[in-house]
Fold each of these.
Amino acid sequence: MKIIDGKATAAEIKSEIAKEVAEMIDIGKDVPHLAAILIGNDPASQTYVSGKEKSCKEVGFISSLYKFPADISEKELIKVVDFINKDDEINGLIVQLPLPDHINVNKIIESIDPSKDVDGFHPLNVGKMVLNLPTYLPATPYGILQLFERYNIETVGKNCVVLGRSNIVGTPISILMSRKAYPGNCTVTVCHSKTKNLEKICRSADILIAAIGTPGFVTADMVKKDAVVIDVGIHRVKSTVTKSGYKLVGDVKFDEVSKKCSYITPVPGGVGPMTIVSLLRNTLKAAKKEVYK
Ligand code: NAP
């Protein structure tokens, strides 16, 4: 069994991006600039946004944070998005999710200029992803693809089972794994809360991608011998072993599944670090006008 080291891979990609940014500066090009909008005081969202700002700094990007209280109106928020859309010095814009209930998330996503939508959530960019056209791929699925590539994991003709169908992980990764491309060319089955015989379907997987949001959902008896297991889940659970009294676990029971599979991503240090790196990659693409001229 081989552990897929997302932390090391992310560090490698970050240094490649940093090198590219230094070269851009050398030839007089503008430094890539990512703007983030953060609404309210959700601690998890604050942690994610500060992680993104820190990563921007590490690779030499400029980052700007636009913070607003949870009671900002939808109209006001759209005005802010519009203001950033028109700012030529900003290449990429992300709106940290989730948003307060009174704001329609789809309306906000659709208000982002697709050329700055480095989260890859705008319907136009999702459509381009489906058609295999140049676009910004959503960060977590893009991170998973980069892990397959960097570890030279064969995907053609494999049975890939995706657990979960969320807009940010399950649905896009299922589309990407079925595309006529590498990584891809898989026969994909998507499972969700209405799926029957889920365990049996999982046992048919050569590649199992778990994005279900339940700690330790995938057990060894659900995994085929030598399968590739990608664990997207992140959960903070109580622990008697750590000093803090908490530890991070995934959707997969790592201890038992790792004994049976050929490759596995750990939690933490697997898919998580690759998500931020993908956002950096998309921002670099935006600055270099690789997707929208
Ligand atoms: P989500 O929006 O909660 O979606 C969960 C999906 O799993 C839904 O499609 C749901 O089905 C399905 N599901 C839930 N319980 C099920 C069950 N018992 N049997 C079968 N299907 C079930 O989750 P998400 O946003 O995709 O996130 C999934 C996990 O990944 C979470 O732990 C999240 O924290 C983590 N995550 C990690 C990263 C990262 O960077 N590593 C990024 C994003 C998310 P229905 O559609 O039928 O409800």
Amino acid sequence: MLSMKSSLKLGVAAAGLALGLGAASSGAMAQQQFVSIGTGAVTGVYYPVGGAICRLMNQTRSEHGIRCSVESTGGSVFNVNAIRGGDLEFGVVQSDVQFNAFNGEGQFEEGGAHEDLRAVFSLHPEPATIAVRADSDIHEFDDLLGNRVNIGNPGSGQRALMDVVMEHKGWSASDFSLASELAPAEQGQALCDNNIDAFVFTVGHPSGAMQEVTSTCDVRIINANDDELMALVEEIPFYFTATIPGGMYRGTDEDVQTFGVGATFVASANVDEDAVYTLVASVFDNLDSFKALHPALEVLDAQAMATEGMSAPLHPGAERYFREHGMID
Ligand code: GLU
């Protein structure tokens, strides 16, 4: 009896506590919301760009209550999958990966179309960057055959791109003497240690990773513009020809002629409209500061960011901002 009474009392107290806590936490949630951006390797461009977006957004946190944080990840494909799984709200992804994810093509064929993927804006160009040891016999793209090549970690955009290129050229991993799957953080060291002859990286320029590897050992960046590759550029939406300016990196004095994709910023359709609007406003209201936060962003143009390179539907929060500012009809 006694124990029943006391347990009853305890039960009531616990219910009261739970109610109190519930009220307190929902109050706190209204004030503080968390969003995470999936990026790439810390030495890539996605990671500092994600950091720049969060920095601008967090500056006005007292007004909107959203705390933005950045995650280093395996890259584009990883980000799309994490957004789909509800582990991330936002991500930076290659334009070709955005297209494939939304349409269930390429590497997303098995998992099916990611219909809840939403475009937010587009970012910087990302040329396919083929870095080779200066002492290697690799002078054009097809010379990669028979050599030790890092084709990229599964989950990265460069791997997605390399898979398409290899299929187009009728190559398989066994056509290289080694096809490694190192992440961008490891590939520079592997090249300088003579464990690989070349790596393929789709990345904005200048990038910290490319600066590091080219200043640590003797590296050349080769052209990737043969007829087969140019036929692929014609065929695939979101591939375009690209140039990496000569003199940008030690060891590569001539312009490099290659092809590339664009980086884009995406969200889950489940992220609320106001949060996306706030993020977009943080970037576009401060575009000059944003562009100054990383040299690969220098080329950005507001109108192009709002209208080009995207294939998933625009998130309503982004759409509202762009419409209010006359950037879309
Ligand atoms: N384009 C690469 C990817 O999609 C990432 C490049 C970067 O980190 O800047 O995985």
Amino acid sequence: MIVMKFGGTSVGTPARIRNCAEIVLERADQKPLVVVSALSGITDELIGAAKNALTGEVESPFRAVRVRHLEMLEELGLPMTLVSGELVRLHELLSGISLVKELTPRTLDFVMSFGEQMSAKIMAAVLRKMGGQAEAVASYDLGFRTDSDFGKARVLKNETYEALQKSLAGRQGVVVTTGFIGKNHKGEITTIGRSGSDYTAAIFGAALGAEEIQIWKDVDGVMTADPSFIPQARLLDRMSFAEAGELAYYGAEVLHPATIAPAVERDIPVRVLNTTKKTAPGTVIVKGPCLEPPVKSVVYKEGIHLIDVFTPRMLSEHGFMARVFNVLEKHRVVVDMIATSEVSLSMTSDSASGLEAAVDEISEFAEVEVRAKMAIICLVGEGMRGQKGFAARVFGAVSDAGVNVRMISQGAREINIAFVVEEGDIPTAVRALHKAFFE
Ligand code: ADP
Ligand code: ASP
Ligand code: MG
């Protein structure tokens, strides 16, 4: 069997949904399980609707979500009643928020979940209308369990794997399920983090021992850079799990950072494909190693804080680093990059929440400086490992472009070279690197 995931953009219009359904039906002999995201933009609209409900405004944001889905149903020739249950419940929920004037992370997850619930129903109905046998089942009704960390819940893998295997065994036809959402042990709806449907697909793929996890997008596959930013970006036909993991971690929107893990555990290839080029092979992500081309892609992550910690006594002070990291841990500040010298420790973090409190606490025993609006630029490729000269080429290109580099790091596996610049320097630095390595 295969798992096929369609993102928001791919199910954003009636024509696109039909196209996706066609892609699924053409692969019926491979026994696809389909994972869908909410229609493009709907998750954002639902978040907006929940926040507006807090201020007492329910009707107009709700109407926007309702109209979008009803127009979709009409254009697809599907009954208006298909998602009326979801719409009624969503309206009740928004009214409840406006009444009690409270929006907890738990309630927000509940609100967001309607996007995927409705898109799954629509996709299954289109498949049936086009002659297929299909049913929509919410992921949690198939056994998709998470913890209760609303907004970024962790999947309880072992339990979920077992439940999915049981509930899907022997089912006929195509099951269309919801990405992004799950339930905790109390039966409350959770979400696993924005753009999480890729990860949902990987969990299903791993649980069911899929031959392939297909992530269908509006791009040709994984490219040498974000094509919406670098029009000269080229398609990569193959990359390794390790490379894809780095790429996602450092911000390439094309894959959710957690996607790769379940696929790696069970060694299942992940293929990124383009819905508008149905027969093109896309990019396949495999165990590897994939040494050619040595450099695969240049990515960047904005909204980074650069944190410099200084102490004149650092070297002699046993446990200094542990102290710093304990504070960061306490305030749940996630650190990406680290560099040290005798008297200073530099780190980057993209978590704004908690950072201020952590910095206050660290200031009690060291000097701290934080610079916001920084970016990490990262070159990924496992062919760079053990090869001389890549760093020189990277920093030569960046310095020729007149960009000031604030901090440099290379992971132990030597499959990336990452450095920090000011956000405003992203376009110049990325263009210079793409030119130096791929054009
Ligand atoms: P989905 O419809 O599944 O949510 P996304 O919009 O999240 O899809 O991801 C696809 C987008 O990722 C593309 O439109 C592209 O602009 C962006 N992207 C960023 N980096 C890359 C890259 N290296 N290769 C391909 N696409 C990339
Ligand atoms: N609909 C969710 C979001 O917009 C999940 C996803 O698209 O993968 O974040
Ligand atoms: Mg996405």
